Amino acid sequence: MNDNTILKRFTTINFLNLALGFLGLQFAWQMRIALAEPVTSSLGASPFLYSLIWLAGPFSGMVVQPIVGVLSDNTKSKFGRRRPYLLGGALITALALWAFPHSAGISDIISSLFHINMPAWGGLLIAAILIWVIDACINIAQGPYRSLIPDVVPKEQHANANSYISLAIGLGSVIAMLVAPTLKFLFNYQMPIDAQFLMAGIAFTLAMIWTCLTIKEKSTLNSQNNDSEQGEKQSFWQSLKEFFLLSPEVKKICLMQFFTWIGMMCLLIYITPFAIHTVYNIPDLANAVIDKAKEQTAQNYALICLAVFNFVCFVIAIPLANLANKFGNKKVHIYSMLSMVIAYLGLAFFRHNPTMVLVFMGLSGIGWASVCALPFAMLSRYIKPGTEGSVMGIFNIFIAGPQVFVCTLVGWLINISTMNGGANHHYELTFYIGAGCLLLASLVTTKIKE
Questions:
Q1: Residues in Cβ contact with 355 at an 8 Å cutoff, skipping those fewer than 6 apart
Q2: Domain boundaries, position 143
Q3: Domain tally for the chain?
Q4: Bridge partners of 251?
Q5: Residue 225: per-residue pLDDT
Q6: CATH code assigned at 15
Q7: Does residue 162 fall inside a structural domain?
Q8: Does residue 305 surpass a pLDDT of 90?
Q9: 318 within some domain
């Protein structure tokens, strides 16, 4: 199935069908990024506790994706190897997204049904559990999704396929982030947070169903060629050992990803509290007296920041692929990451200027488009047929692992840095750290041979 001689070239429609499910995935993921902090802070989470809750993402990525990758490589079904995981992950994620903003109510129901005196922080505990479920199930879908590309797309079109995924990431995020601000602007209706999470779950499910129906995998059930396509079944540890023997360049790509994703998560984890508490100067203490109208304005502004960031990703994704085809993945990726370094420094320096913050969020979107596509294009040339799931799953360790650093050390640094008499924290610190790590990633990229 991975032989280019029997893989049909993808048309634009094929690429769009392939990317739509990832658009839904990103819709859900972006909603979780943007609105988890307002939900958890309303339940009493401090900046450091919020960071610890975010550990759900990296731990899920380091454990779930590699295991699911190996499982999907060895899955036999009439629906193919990847599609059962895509659809299953989407459905469970949708249920958890719906439940998450109702965490306090769920805690009360559990207390009533089982006659248990739930602690005051019971709602926060339920929210943390649901965050872990959301992140784990998104990872169940995401790993096999990346593996689907080398399964069904000819090798010479892998960069294009990953760029369409990058396009879907940008567009899905833009749509997700603009719904609430647009309704407020046009109809003066503030969409409740629980309705936004429900919308995300529905969008993820419907989009994934479309991709599963339109992108056909070969049935692996009773396939005569299955053994020759997949080779001998391997355990996770065998796959891990072989991963590092693929090429010396793979180690450099992994090191590049390690520093890149420290930098990326410095933005993705903290942009919402940065926008609300630093740009708009709203106290981030759970017991503070807050102007609710101003808080809603700040929350909508945070959504707009992420919309601008992802809109640039959407616009630049395909041109970036064309530039990579002309000048090479390595060179384009280096310049893209350097543009993000400049953007991060701008965010920190102009943190009290909402207009300039939006400008630098847009500039950082160039690097985001590259991060979503070009490292995977660099890696894909080293993947052996039949090992796509395990390779992409193991590669995700170098995306998820760095997030532990951000969720712990960076979160702790922010937590101990206070201003305005302790009512706010210095969230701009995250952008100084992120800029340094992205610069290191750029330097590592210069050593990769193409």
A1: none
A2: 10-217+243-445
A3: 1
A4: none
A5: 47
A6: 1.20.1250.20
A7: yes
A8: yes
A9: yes
